[in-house]
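Q: I have two molecules that I believe assemble together. Could you output structure tokens for the complex as a whole instead of separate predictions?
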Amino acid sequence: MEKNVSINIATDFSKNLGVRVGPSSGETFFEEILNKKYIEAKDTNRQLEINLDGASPYGSSFLDQSFGKLFREYGKDVVDRIIFKTQYFNWIVDIIKQEIWKS
Amino acid sequence: MIAIIFFFFIRALYCQCWFSSIIFSQEILPLDALNIFVSGVIAVWLGWYITRKLTEQRFLKEFIIKDICRIEEQIESFEKLINTNNATLQSIFAELNDLKHKIERFDRTTKLTLFSCNDVNYLNIYHTKLYKISTEEINLPADSRNELQSICDDFVVCLRKIVCKINNM
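A: Yes, here they are, computed for all two components at once.
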């Protein structure tokens, strides 16, 4: 079985996150990493693992402009394809699933 | 006062010879002795057991109420932060993260005890409201402070309702 596609936000993107737009923003994260990795996972029929630990702050605008935009572009498949890994931000995962994706 | 009234009542009954038919035997039968002993043991055990259970329950209530006080202190810390000019996204997020962990700890603790409370869901709702409004921008806009303060007020009142519920259980 092939390994899942993975993203570690702290090492692959930034430890200090921004807001909706601007440096280290949700928009930049979506354009440079999230969208590309998601398409890679989808094309190879794999899941996308996203590690949230090590980076902060996960503001509501960052989440909306990254994960929210992904959901608006690709729909329900996002919910089934993405696996979150975190020890410290389980509540952020809940916010993404219940508020951003409303699933 | 009650003792004095009771004394005069008994005295009145004695004068009316109400106690003349009562005969006290000086013989103690083995069965009477056993009866006294068993009654005494049961009374002592019941007294010990009930007192212990009440003490345990009181201790547990106070322990859980302390947890709620910690959550309230965390909200106060958040309120102080949003009323300063130094409220950045990073500092606000750190406060909200601490607050969330305290709420989760409280939720998991109450599930271990008899004091399980559905109002914890409201705590999560208030937390999410604070999160959505206060983490939109890098620096907290001044005009969102009033709304955040109002949510904090409702949050604290909800906590106090939980304290009353737990205290009355």
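A: One point stands out. Strands of chain A lie at 5-8, 48-51, 82-85.
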